[in-house]
Structure formats: C-alpha cells, structure tokens
Amino acid sequence: MTPRRAAELTVQPSPNRAPEARRPMSVPDATVVVAACDTMPHLTACLDSLVGRTPAPGRLEAVASADRGPDVVEPGQVGVNGRVLSDEPFTPEACPHAGRVSVLADYDCCVLALREDLGNATERAGVLDRLRGIAALQQVAVELVGVGEELDDIRARGFAWDVPRLLQDGFLLLDDGLQRRVCEEVGRMIERFGARTVYHRLPVAARVRLELAAAARPEALRDQIRYEAAHGEPPVVADGRRRYAGYPAFRDARLGLPDGLFLLGEEPLVEAVLPLNPAQRLWRGVVPERLRRGLRRSPVWRRLANSVNGGRG
C-alpha cells in the first residue's frame, strides 16, 4: 500500500500509538468493519482496496479487529481501532452499534483466500476453539441485544447451525476423550444460553444431536450421526394427531429423551359435525334461510334452539 493512496483514507488511529501520531477526524459517511485475525498480508491488501474505493478524504472509516494490526500499520496511513477481538464476536458487536448496515449484493463481497499454510484461522481451529468462539458470540448477543426476538434469532442461528455442524461426521474422527469434552462443552452452552427456549425453531436432527451431547452420551450421538449419513430423513411415526421423526433414539428407554425433541408437527383438531336429524332437515327445508337468520338474532329463540338441537336451528 503506497503512502499516497493510504493518505486518502481517514480512519480512527490506534490507541497503541503515541499521542503525537493521533489526529482529529471528521465524522465519516460510512464505516467499513473488517474482522481479521492474524491475516497479514491479506489485511494490507484489503485496506489498500478500501483506499482505492474511497470517494473523498474523510468520508470512509475502516475499523479492523486484528491480532497484530496496530504493529503493521504506519502512522499517517491506516489506523486500526484498538479493540482486539476474535473474528466471530467482532461483527455481531459492531452491528448493534451501527446506525445503518449496508450489504454489497451486486458482486461477491466475501472471498475465502487460503493462506500459505493452506488454511485460515477458522478452517484450522480445533473443535473446542470453535465452540469457545460460538460461546463468545452468544455472550456478546446477551450483553448487547437483551431478551427478546432479536436475541432468540441469534440463539436459533447458533444452535441450529453453528453447534450442530460440529456434531456431524467430523465428530466421529475425534478420540473418545475429546468427544466427551465436546459433549460437556455443548451441554454447558445449552444451559448457559437457554438453547431449549428456541428448540421449536431448530430442525429435529439438530435438537436430537444437541440433547445427546448434553446428556453426555457420545456413543448414542455417534449412532445418530451414522444413521443420518446412511438414511437421511427418518420414517415418520404417527401417534394420534402428532407426527414424530422415527430416529433410533426415539422412545429409546435407555436414553429417555422426551418425545417433544422428535416432534415434526401436529394435525389440527377438527370437531366432528353430527348429521342433521329428520326434524332439523324439515325445518331447514320449510323455513327460508333469511327467516331463520332473523330468528337466530332473538335471545329467546337462541336459548330454545340450543336446548333442542345445539344451536343448529
């Protein structure tokens, strides 16, 4: 990144810099949030690209989360907001504070660039690290969003996708000890963040995997994962008006999982309509509908009709 182009971008200087390196800035028209973690030299290329798109000095602010960002950005070029956060909690924390969020949709705005070590921080992170990252994201949501529909949306996203995806084929490759640690961590997250309050918004397969982990039953969780891989959707089990996903764990006495975990849906209750008796058919055949509607407006008639035929006069 050349000094000439970098000077066109006015951003908040890093608090790690000496006071003389700081300079006042006007309120920008837009802020670009860059969630980065140990990504040099890609961070430099990203900021260089932002500078090239800047309409005029002072109109664009770049806020980055980086492990070593302040050490690689020179004074007078691009400043980095001093808060150092991991990738996952950084963006959710920025969004609730934003007055307006714009998403570029006319071209790809998220590109996974593999580093020289053939992976990025997310791809190479271990399963426990990823669970801690998901927990950090949920904690940010609890602190900033508060109880309500928005928090439930974030909970549902985390426990419908982020956590269950760690309880799929990759789980089978872990050793027994690590599998148990994963189950323990998942169980703590379910309790800590009230995941069960949004279970009704989760796919049945996700609910079952989460509860098998929370029950510290890695062997049953392995069976569930293998069944899904081999059979896909389970058979539907009908019980009255309710329909359940017939996974092997359904009503397994050894596991004791509640039926509600497997519930697919419930048919609406339809009240049976009794056929008309001969007197009712005669009444409706002889008395015009308009006259019958007028009689039904009379309280005396309604009481009489209810006593005789349940209000179907």
Number of helices: 14
Average pLDDT? 76
The H/E string reads HEHEHHHHHHHHHEEEHHH
Give a count of the beta strands, DSSP E runs of length 2 or more.
Answer: 5
In percent, how much strand structure appears in the residues? 5-15%
Question: How many distinct domains?
Answer: 3
- Portion in helices: 40-55%
The largest beta-sheet arranges its strands as: 3-4-5
Q: Span between N and C termini?
A: 87 Å
The secondary structure category is mainly alpha
Q: How would you characterize this protein structure?
A:
This protein is mainly α. It has three domains: 3-97, no CATH class; 125-235, no CATH class; 278-309, no CATH class. 45% of the residues lie in helices and 8% in strands. A three-stranded antiparallel beta sheet has the order 3-4-5, with no helix packed on it. A two-stranded parallel sheet has the order 1-2. Helix 6 (127-144) runs antiparallel to helix 7. The chain is flat, with a radius of gyration of 31 Å. The model is unreliable at 1-23 and 68-86 (pLDDT under 50).
Task: Give the key terms.
3-stranded antiparallel β-sheet; flat; mainly alpha; single chain; 8% strand; 313 residues; 3 domains; 5 strands; disordered N terminus
Question: What would a concise description of this structure say?
Answer:
Helix content is 45%, strand content 8%. It has 14 helices and five strands.
